Structures are given as structure tokens and as C-alpha cells.
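Worked example 3 (structure in, sequence out).
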């Protein structure tokens, strides 16, 4: 099993973050990876010109770093964001296309987690722009039909 201590220590230099207990993970009732590790990230974004507090959950699979983690938004903000591109109805934020294989070099894992959180923030921040949403929905629609 992956040792998260160093990764968490470095990530906390950028974001407020805590590890959820197994009980806490189950109580919030998300589709997290079974037997994995879950972090709660308390951060801020700019949305429609205002600063907004936001909570993300990072679900690390038991086989991390051989499988990619997933990022979820807190359920309470889903209603406001559910019609923007890349936010799924399971509260996850699509950072990478599912089904694609990614290579994660061990020395870059910290950068990967930082990148994923940054992308989740950008997805939400950029969604305030209507033109961005239209283009992203077109791209997602095209990608869906190319996959299926």
C-alpha cells in the first residue's frame, strides 16, 4: 500500500487538507474507491467574480499510484454546478477521460494531485463563462459518441 504521509505533508503546503476516517467516508455516501484513502480539501475558487469556499474529496484507489484518484465536489454545491461541463451526477469532476491509461512517474505524484485539484477548480471557475460551457459541451458530446 502507498505511503501517503509525505504526499499529504507536501500537499498541505498548498491546500487545507485532512484524511477522512473510514467511518467519515461512508457517512458522506459517495462512490469512493472501496478500501481506498479519502482526503477532504477545503479550498477557494473565484466564481462569477466572487470568492467561494469549496470542498473537494480526493478518493485514492487502494492500488494508487497504479490507478488514478478521483475528485468529487461536496454535495451541497452540486445543485449550483450540475449543469456545467465535466461535473458528473455522482458529484465527481472529470479531469481525465475514463478508460484511458495514464503513466504516473513516482517522482511526479505530488504534481499530479496538485494538477488535478487545480483542474477541478478551473472547471468550476471557467463555467461562469457561457461560451466556455458551450464549447466544452460540444467537445464532451463528440467524445462520448467517439467512445461509444
Amino acid at each position: 500500500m502507498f505511503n501517503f504521509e509525505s504526499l499529504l505533508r507536501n500537499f498541505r503546503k498548498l491546500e487545507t487538507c485532512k484524511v477522512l476516517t473510514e467511518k467519515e467516508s461512508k457517512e458522506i455516501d459517495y462512490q469512493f474507491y472501496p478500501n481506498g484513502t479519502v482526503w477532504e480539501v477545503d479550498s477557494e475558487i473565484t466564481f462569477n467574480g466572487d470568492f467561494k469556499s469549496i470542498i473537494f474529496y480526493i478518493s485514492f484507489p487502494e492500488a494508487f499510484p497504479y490507478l488514478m484518484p478521483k475528485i468529487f465536489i461536496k454535495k451541497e454545491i452540486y445543485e449550483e454546478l450540475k449543469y456545467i461541463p465535466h461535473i458528473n451526477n455522482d458529484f465527481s469532476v472529470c479531469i481525465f477521460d475514463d478508460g484511458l491509461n495514464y503513466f504516473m512517474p513516482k517522482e511526479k505524484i505530488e504534481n499530479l494531485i496538485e494538477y488535478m485539484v487545480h483542474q477541478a477548480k478551473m472547471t468550476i471557475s471557467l463555467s461562469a463563462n457561457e461560451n466556455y460551457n458551450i464549447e466544452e459541451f460540444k467537445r464532451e458530446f463528440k467524445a462520448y459518441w467517439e467512445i461509444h
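Notes: Helices lie at 5-11, 22-27, 75-81, 109-126, 130-147. The CA atoms of residues 82 and 89 lie 7 Å apart.
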